[in-house]
Amino acid sequence: MTIVDVHPGQRLRREHARLTASLDDLLERFADGNQRDLRAAWAEVEQDLVAHLDFEDRLILPSFTAIDPVETQALRAEHLRLRETLAELSVGVDLHLIQLDRAREFAGWLREHAHREDQLLYRWVDRELAQIMRAIPGIEVDGWSSI
Ligand SMILES: [Fe+2]
Ligand SMILES: [Fe+2]
């Protein structure tokens, strides 16, 4: 079995970098009043972020809770806040009523959340989860597929 992306921690960090860059780009376009194709671009960021959060919630945090239940609970609470705010902002985008201050606040939370995960959760992922995932036959998880 070969894992296509052999380093889950790096993959998750790359997703953070891509998500925050995409969000920054969108916020600039919102600020410039450039509404063209904004809805589709927002939907793409939303889909990628939700997939990232789902992956962590379903496949990483259930194992990490045995290591650090307090941190796991805090990360789950942050995920919930991110999901709720993302949904709220998406309604605004649909209605062409984007709340720029709120969106900037959201981008700041996302950056802080990414930093927090990098400090503890992803270091654990680097050490442990690659081994765990390699041990699962036939695993196929959002691009981390075995072939
Ligand atoms: Fe997260
Ligand atoms: Fe993350």
Structure, described:
The structure is a single chain. The chain has helices at residues 8-31, 38-64, 69-94, 100-119, 121-134. Helices cover 76% and strands 0% of the residues. The protein is elongated and about 50 Å long. The protein has a single domain, classed as Up-down Bundle (Four Helix Bundle (Hemerythrin (Met), subunit A)), CATH 1.20.120. With 147 residues, it is mostly helical. The protein has 5 helices and no strands.
Can you give keywords for this protein?
binds fe (ii) ion; Four Helix Bundle (Hemerythrin (Met), subunit A); single chain; mainly alpha
What's the SSE blueprint?
Elements: H1 8-31, H2 38-64, H3 69-94, H4 100-119, H5 121-134
Q: How would a crystallographer describe the biggest sheet?
A: none
**SS-based structural class?**
mainly alpha
The name of the CATH architecture is: Up-down Bundle
Q: How many domains?
A: 1
- Quick one: how many beta strands? 0
**Helix amount:** over 70%
Order of helical and strand elements: HHHHH
Q: Could you tell me the mean pLDDT? A: 85
CATH class: Mainly Alpha
**According to CATH, what is the topology?**
Four Helix Bundle (Hemerythrin (Met), subunit A)
- Tell me the fraction of residues in β-strands, as a range: under 5%
